[in-house]
Structures are given as structure tokens and as C-alpha cells.
Amino acid sequence: MSGSDFLLQERQARIVEKLAASGKVLAGELAREFSVSEDTIRRDLREMAVAGLCRRVYGGALAIPPTAPFAERAVDQPERKGALARAAVRFIEPGMLVFLDASSANLAIAREISSLSGVTVVTNAPPIASVLMEAVDVILIGGAVDRRVGGALGSRALGDAERLRPDLCILGACGVDAEAGITAFHLEDAEFKRTIARRSRCVMTTAMSEKLGTAAPHDVIAMAECGRLVVEHDADAAIINDIAALGVEIVRAGKI
Amino acid sequence: MSGSDFLLQERQARIVEKLAASGKVLAGELAREFSVSEDTIRRDLREMAVAGLCRRVYGGALAIPPTAPFAERAVDQPERKGALARAAVRFIEPGMLVFLDASSANLAIAREISSLSGVTVVTNAPPIASVLMEAVDVILIGGAVDRRVGGALGSRALGDAERLRPDLCILGACGVDAEAGITAFHLEDAEFKRTIARRSRCVMTTAMSEKLGTAAPHDVIAMAECGRLVVEHDADAAIINDIAALGVEIVRAGKI
DNA sequence: ATGCATAATCGTGTATAAACGTGCATGATG
DNA sequence: CATCATGCACGTTTATACACGATTATGCAT
């Protein structure tokens, strides 16, 4: 190692500070400032971006645009959900057709997506559609709204779902377990999620730590059918390892 | 490459800001400001246009005309809309299947309906469904969401509408005139409203005073097809009399 | 008004240097 | 010894500027 007076975490913490102060950082500049190679800085920025702490761009990184204050409704645990959401939206690219199911996690993701563009979102959840329709194209899946789930379900919704092939399906899970897979509380909800997930090119699931290793009554899909799992920074390592062993890419969100 | 102190994404973000502030940007001006060639600026503007962030024009770019969705306008005169809504919901009875179209007036009505029970509401507007789904049964009409209108429209939505026979159809009008009838700003919206209105047992329209005697470009239904019109207390007597002469029941909302 | 001349602006292709990611070796840490 | 952060070498990708022919707006003469 060449002469650096900074530990990795310390360095990254300082980068976050600089980012908050000036809104952007340049890779070359940071390399000089911390006396490390640009490779190291790039590695840092990559890691931080995956954790949702910055937006990686050519030449450096930009601060995450602070989520509008009014959108930060104190429903459940907005900071935790927000961190997961920021990590998740990184995988959404312009031109994609993205499905969001009815879940509070996806409402948080919807708020983040609002700042993207060129994306089309499919959803069966009215609140998610409400948030998104001002910012991006929305395709609404209709049917009888199940108030326990918060979205349209039933034959009409299933029929709609069977005519779509999303590029990415983002599921908010009720339970995530290596053995039980992704599970949901309600039968029709599980059916619907399974239908749309199987028709999607990629499936991504977000899960708060307390959902890991638990199973709800109704199977949605097997764990291996989920390509990517976004978890919190403190997710249980043993559970995560079991899931990763099934070929699921694990993404850890940043600390709050 | 000549020296620029701005990262690409940052530069584009600033252009978006300038665009929002002044409504237009000039290619040459931006090139000087960011110390890059005009080619680079043109490429930026082209990319941004593809992403829907601006409208490309000869010499620069223009801001996208802000499509204020009805949810925002709904708050502009909440008391007036609330008064109309309270007058309108008096005609909703338990057991009814009620259709609410996408309009700010109907968002206000939805808030009032929340306190009723035993009602089922059909709507193509996500914000209305969001407000109602916790309180009453909701049937969501799906399809591609038209952000100008704030609800699902198009063939899918029309198909859904053709399978329903609501007891009551509540329309938020863009224009209400004895001769022109009920009119709307957008063709597909008018088509959809007409379809669902013709299938409903009763049609009720709410109109703020400034909508009376005016016509929007697209016909929805003739005035006589509307059984009941809810207006504000200060509605123009002459206009109201003409409409009443066609057999439309007039309901005046209370003062604020 | 209509047509034409002219200059500004445009899009594309090409060249180039910076920035990138990856695999691997190294030295520190525990 | 095992782990891990780091730096270096490699081929690849990306952002940019410049060159050139095409397009468009504008002014001027008819």
C-alpha cells in the first residue's frame, strides 16, 4: 500500500461529506486529496453508489438529489425504506418497462423513480400510480381493488398482467427465505405477483431485515427465480449467504 | 478533450434547471457557459430531448410545457370544490355503483365519499382510487395513464368501461353549455367519459361557475343527457335557466 | 407575397485522450 | 496463514472536439 493516512471507511465517509457539501466529486481530485490511486477512488465510488450514497457518473460522482420533504410521509419507517429504494432504483435504466407491485416498499421506490425519466412503469397500485403519473409514463392495471393489499387483483388484473412483458419486476416481499422463497400474505396477491414476475425479464425484490428468513402463507416464486435481492446494510449474513448460494445477486443498501 | 469543470450529468442537470427557470436555452450560450463545444451542447440537448426533458428547437431547446395534473390544481380552490362535493354526495346512496372520472372536482368528491359506506366506486383516476380504497370498495379501470387527464384512457380503459353499468356517473366537466353540452379538453378523455356516461343509469355533472357557458373542443354528451347539474351558489341565472329548460335538474351548492 | 442568397445551425463520422473495469501481484493487518 | 485494501497493467468504453455535407432560418430583391 502506498502512503495513505486514511482508512477505507474514513475515506468514504469524507467523500460523503464532500458530496453533501458541494454536490459532486471528481475521481482525480479525490485521488490527489487522499493520496491514493484513482482506481481506489473508483472502487469507493462504485461501492457507495451501490449502497445508494451517491450517483456514479463518468469522471466522478454526484450527490443523491435530496428527496422532496413533502414526499417524506412518516408512514412506516421512511428512512429505511428510502435507503432500500435508492439502492433499488439504480438498476432502472431509461427505456425500461418496470413493474411495481402494491407494497409500501414500492411506494418509496416510486418516489425515487419520479426523478428518473424515459421509464414506463406498470402497476396495480393506485397510490404508486398517483405518485408516478406526473413524472413518467404509467400503465395502470385495473380490476377490483383489494384494500388489504392496496392494489387491483382478481381475474381482470391477471388478464392485464398476461399481456405485458416488463423488463424489470420489483416485488415488495412479505417474506423472503432461501427455502420458502418469496411469499405473500394473501392468495390472490401471491397469484398476481407470480404471474407478472414470471413474465418479466428480471425480478428484483426489496426486503427489510425483519422479513429475511420468514415466510408468509402463500408462495409467490422460488428464491432462485429472483435475480436480485436488495437488503438493508445490517441484513443477517447467514441468511444472505444461503440466498446468495442460490445464485441471487445481493445488493446492500447504505446506512441511513 | 478541452478542459471542462463539469461532469456530463451535472451539466445536463444544470441545463434542466436553466430550462425550468427561463423556459429556453441557447446552444451557443450554453457552450460558452460550460466551456465546451457547441457540438457537446447539441448532443446534450438531443439526449435530453429523447429523455423527454426538453423540446429540441433550432438554436437551442425549450422547456416542456408543464402538464399540471389535476391533483395539483385540486388544491387551488379547495373550499369551492368542497362545497360542490358536499352537495353532490347527497345523491349517493348505499349499495350504489358510482363512477368518478378523472378530474379535480371528483377528487374532492372522493374525499367526501370516504365517510360513506356500502358504496362501490369505479374510477380510472389513480389519485381518486388512492383516496377511496381504504374506505369503500373500488374498481379500478386500467390502461395507459394520460398524464394530462390524470387517468387511464385508451382502448383498454374503454373496454373495461363497456363491461360496467354504474348507477350513477359523476363527471367533472371542462365546459358546460346549454347548446354545446358537456365538453372536455382531450379527445380520448371525451370518448371515455361519453362511453361510461351512456352506460350509467344517471349522469350528474359538477361545474364551477367559470365553466358554465363555456365549451371545450371535444363533445362528451348533450346537455339533456345529463340528469343533474351541481353548480355553485353564485352560478349565472341566465345560463342555468337555459340548461334547466332542457330538463336538467339544477342543484345549487351552499355558500362556502 | 415569392424566390433566392447567405449565414447560422444541424447531424454524422472520425480521431483522441480520459476514464473505466478487471485480473493479478503486493504489502499490510489480524 | 488468511483476509483485505491497494496499486498496476491491460484492453474497453465514453466523452469530447473537429471536419464536412446537409438543413434551416433570415434578409433582400423582385
Description:
Chain A is an alpha/beta fold. Chain A folds into 2 domains: 8-62, Arc Repressor Mutant, subunit A (Orthogonal Bundle); 69-252, 3-Layer(aba) Sandwich (Rossmann fold), CATH 3.40.50.1360. Helices cover 36% and strands 23% of the residues of chain A. Chain A is built from 9 helices and 15 strands. Chain A has helices spanning 8-22, 27-34, 38-50, 78-89, 104-113, 126-132, 154-161, 187-198, 237-244, and strands spanning 24-26, 55-57, 60-62, 97-100, 120-123, 137-140, 143-146, 151-153, 168-172, 175-177, 181-184, 202-207, 218-221, 228-231, 249-252. A 7-stranded parallel β-sheet of chain A has the order 6-5-4-9-12-14-15, sandwiched between helices. Chain A has a 3-stranded antiparallel β-sheet with strand order 1-3-2. Chain A has a 3-stranded antiparallel β-sheet with strand order 10-11-13. In chain A, helix 5 (104-113) packs parallel to helix 6 and helix 7 (154-161) packs parallel to helix 8. Chain A is globular. Chains A and B meet through helix 6, strand 6, strand 7 and helix 7 of A and helix 1, helix 7, strand 6, strand 7 and helix 8 of B. The structure holds a DNA duplex (30 and 30 nucleotides). Chains A, B: This is DeoR family transcriptional regulator. Chains A, B: Keywords: DNA-binding, Repressor, Transcription, Transcription regulation. Chains A, B: GO terms for molecular function: DNA binding; DNA-binding transcription factor activity. Chains A, B: InterPro entries: Carb_Metab_HTH_regulators (IPR050313), DeoR-like_C (IPR014036), DeoR_HTH (IPR001034), NagB/RpiA_transferase-like (IPR037171), Tscrpt_reg_HTH_DeoR_CS (IPR018356), WH-like_DNA-bd_sf (IPR036388), WH_DNA-bd_sf (IPR036390). Chains A, B: Residues 8-63 form the HTH deoR-type domain.
